[in-house]
Amino acid sequence: MKKIYIETYGCQMNLADTEVVLSILKENDFTIAQNEHEADVILLNTCSVRDNAEQRIYGRIGNLKTVKREKPAALLGIIGCMAERLKDNLTEQNKAIDLIVGPDEYRRLPELIARAEKGNKGIGVQLSRTETYDDIVPYREDGLSAWISVMRGCDKFCTFCVVPFTRGRERSRSLISIVEEVKELSKRGFKEITLLGQNVNSYHDNEYDFADLLSAVAKVDNTIRIRYTTSHPQDLSEKLLNVMAENANICNYIHLPVQSGSNRILELMNRTYTIDHYLNIVEKAKQIIPGVSFSTDIISGFPTETEEDHLATLEIMKKIRYDSAFMFKYSPREGTKAYKMKDDVDEATKSRRLTEIIDLQQKISSEENQKLIGKVVEVLVENYSRKSVREYSGRTDTNKTVVFPVKEHISIGNYVQIKISKATSSTLIGEII
Ligand code: SAH
Ligand code: SF4
Ligand code: F3S
Question: Residues in the chain with pLDDT < 70?
Answer without folding.
Answer: none
